[in-house]
Give the backbone structure.
Amino acid sequence: MISRMKTKMSNLKSAGFRIVILAALLSIPPLTEGADMAEKGKYVLHATGGCSCHTDPNDPQAIMAGNRPLKTPFGPVYTSNITPDAETGIGNWSELDFINAMTKGVRPDGSHLFPVFPYTSFTKMQTDDLKALFAYLKTIAPVERETKPDDMYPPFGWRFGLFFWKLVNFSPGSYQFDQRKSEEWNRGAYLVSGLAHCAECHSPRNITGAVKQNLLFAGTKEGPELELAPNITPDRETGIGSWSQKDLNWFLTSGQKPDGDYTEGVMAEVIDEGYQFLSEADINAMSGYIFSLKPIKNKLD
Ligand code: HEC
């Protein structure tokens, strides 16, 4: 009798167990999964510098609504509305549309994006991070705002020319782990060269607007908004070789330089809107990677 009851109990248990397995197989998402994704996406957003170019400092309420003119040597480019508004933002985009824009520089309609939008770096991002970022962008308030048409000087304003530009200057593909280096170094390299896109602003460009690969991170007089972006290679004389790694960690979280001055302009924006929220471990991995770069002598002022 007792043993029969036991079997009944265990039958019941295994039935319950089967339901759990079945639910898992049908992949019924736990209630928090969407929220977790968006939370992770917020961290990814911070690692990119907060997509700060998509918010106009003259209209800070319209978060991510774009239309901010970015000065370039080729004329102004207006950033896109990346709020989830269906008409004027990315509300109608699928996850794949978003991933294609970020990693291939193409819009859902097939047109090419200007490399002012740093897909040349974002292409290195892992798919999981891209999915999370998309999930987070979906949670921000939609703003209805049409993006102004481009104002670039011909031939730079001709989007079809970008097809050829990409053939020469763009190598798509996600970050490749370097087995010879530590986990931490790879994390730093992934963040710096992918999400945080430091080199996009801190490198000189050739006349077609492509980054000069031999001067990566070595600074430029004509940086974003046509401002000077300093040499951040560890060259003692012209770069940040005299800074300690601690100095750089502090700078990336507070904007304060070793001489006590605070940074300004777009660097202050990417710190305020993004990097300052990163974990200590990630900041340390990023600065470790920067100090592992080859020092390049490049005097700018
Ligand atoms: C959107 C463009 C942009 C991005 C992205 C960016 N920077 Fe900067 N950075 C600048 C500009 C412009 C300045 C100069 C600001 C100033 O004059 O205060 C600057 C200043 C600095 C300085 C101060 C150097 C000095 O000698 O005064 C350091 C260090 C630095 N950036 C490191 C980084 C690192 C590391 C990253 C990536 C994690 C990064 N930056 C990403 C544009 C950018």
User: Anything to note?
Assistant: The first strand starts at residue 69 and ends at 70. The CA atoms of residues 17 and 37 lie 27 Å apart. The chain has eleven helices and two strands.
